[in-house]
Amino acid sequence: MRVMGVDPGLTRCGISLVEGGTGRAVTALDVDVVRTPSDLELSQRLMRVADAAEYWMDTHEPQVVAVERVFAQHNVRTAMGTAQAGGVVALAAARRGIDVCFHTPSEVKAAVTGNGTAGKAQVTAMVTRILGLQKPPSPADAADALALAICHCWRAPMIARMAEAEKRAREQEKAFKARLARERRARRQAGAQR
């Protein structure tokens, strides 16, 4: 599975590409950080992030894009920019028919380090070790993008099993409700014939 990991941001947006093999084998194929100047208009900054993401998608043809889910930050302005950057990446993927999966920071940290509250240094060290890199990816946004892709490679089978289980549960619930409705109708008809 070829996964594009995205650590969204307006100032720095980490983008990576990882190939998942059998078991927990993963190989880093590429990583970069898109930077936009803070004095540029928001729309122009988002366009630069989108352009870079689209180039990566068209060049590397990932099967899925894993994006960090933004759910809370102390700085609302930063959270908004991060969410907007993640949104333009998700939109670019959707337009190409590429699946998008969102992972929370704690999910990524837990998958890569075993600790959902791990610090950036620990995530970077584990990414370096897991991928067998000669040196740690820098800046941290690059390591985070790689961690997102690794997380998705490792969690994708579980996510697929959960989605299949939910689908089967919905089908069973629908069949059960239909059976109950048939039994009620049969009882009403039997009562009317008496």
From TrEMBL:
Keywords: Cytoplasm, DNA damage, DNA recombination, DNA repair, DNA-binding, Endonuclease, Hydrolase, Magnesium, Metal-binding, Nuclease. The RuvA-RuvB-RuvC complex processes Holliday junction (HJ) DNA during genetic recombination and DNA repair. Endonuclease that resolves HJ intermediates. Cleaves cruciform DNA by making single-stranded nicks across the HJ at symmetrical positions within the homologous arms, yielding a 5'-phosphate and a 3'-hydroxyl group; requires a central core of homology in the junction. The consensus cleavage sequence is 5'-(A/T)TT(C/G)-3'. Cleavage occurs on the 3'-side of the TT dinucleotide at the point of strand exchange. Residues 168-183 have a biased composition (Basic and acidic residues). Belongs to the RuvC family. The active site is at 7, 68, 141. CDD domains: RuvC (cd16962). This is Crossover junction endodeoxyribonuclease RuvC. It is an enzyme of class 3 (hydrolase). Mg(2+) 1 binds at residues 7, 141. One of its GO terms (biological process) is DNA repair. Its EC number is 3.1.21.10. Homodimer which binds Holliday junction (HJ) DNA. The HJ becomes 2-fold symmetrical on binding to RuvC with unstacked arms; it has a different conformation from HJ DNA in complex with RuvA. In the full resolvosome a probable DNA-RuvA(4)-RuvB(12)-RuvC(2) complex forms which resolves the HJ. Residues 168-194 are annotated as: Disordered. Mg(2+) 2 binds at residue 68. InterPro entries: RNaseH-like_sf, RNaseH_sf, X-over_junc_endoDNase_Mg_BS, X-over_junc_endoDNase_RuvC. GO terms for cellular component: cytoplasm; Holliday junction resolvase complex. It is found in: Cytoplasm. GO terms for molecular function: crossover junction DNA endonuclease activity; DNA binding; magnesium ion binding. Binds 2 Mg(2+) ion per subunit. It catalyses: Endonucleolytic cleavage at a junction such as a reciprocal single-stranded crossover between two homologous DNA duplexes (Holliday junction). Its main location: cytoplasm. It comes from the Bacteria. Its cofactor is Mg(2+).
